[in-house]
């Protein structure tokens, strides 16, 4: 993913507003990264976070490091602000789902709870 720093906070906020219908997520100072704008990706995130080793942040970092698109950020002392736009949502969905499944399979789960069992079923993990 191409990483683009927008140094001026005002310019960044204007860009956020103009791209709000395009970005997959917005990581903002007040709430952090709290959802994916794509419904399928949000379902992936919602189910994945039932495991302690997966968070919205780890999913976003995977996207930033492995998927095609643009990552815009403003690293200002008053707070970090960023958003990502992916080039191909279908491809990104597949990459993210594979990442989550690999993470779940790589981490042993003791005393599985109902949410984790539901997540395994959702991701098709036996």
Number of domains: 1
Number of strands: 4
Please trace the helix and strand order, writing H or E for each element: EHEHHEEHH
Report the oligomer.
single chain
The major beta sheet can be summarized as:
4 strands, mixed
Structure description:
The protein is α+β, with helices and mostly antiparallel strands. It has one domain. It contains five helices and four strands, in the order E-H-E-H-H-E-E-H-H. Strand 3 and strand 4 form a beta hairpin.
Comma- or semicolon-separated keywords:
four-stranded mixed β-sheet, 4 strands, 47% helix
What's the topology here?
Blueprint: E1 2-5, H1 9-18, E2 25-27, H2 39-48, H3 56-66, E3 69-76, E4 79-86, H4 89-106, H5 114-123
Parallel strand pairs: 1-3
Antiparallel strand pairs: 2-4, 3-4
Give a nutshell description of this structure.
A four-stranded mixed sheet has the order 1-3-4-2, covered by helices on one side. The protein is α+β, with helices and mostly antiparallel strands and 126 residues long.
């Amino acid at each position: 993913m191409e990483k683009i720093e927008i140094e001026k906070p005002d310019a960044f906020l204007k860009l956020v507003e103009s791209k709000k219908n395009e970005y997959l997520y917005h990581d903002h100072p007040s709430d952090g990264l709290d959802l994916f704008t794509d419904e399928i990706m949000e379902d992936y995130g919602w189910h994945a976070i039932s495991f302690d080793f997966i968070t919205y942040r780890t999913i976003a970092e995977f996207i930033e490091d492995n998927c095609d698109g643009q990552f815009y950020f403003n690293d200002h002392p008053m707070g970090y602000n960023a958003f990502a736009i992916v080039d191909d949502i279908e491809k990104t969905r597949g990459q993210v789902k594979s990442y989550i499944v690999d993470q779940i399979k790589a981490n042993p789960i003791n005393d599985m709870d109902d949410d984790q069992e539901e997540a395994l079923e959702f991701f098709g993990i036996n």
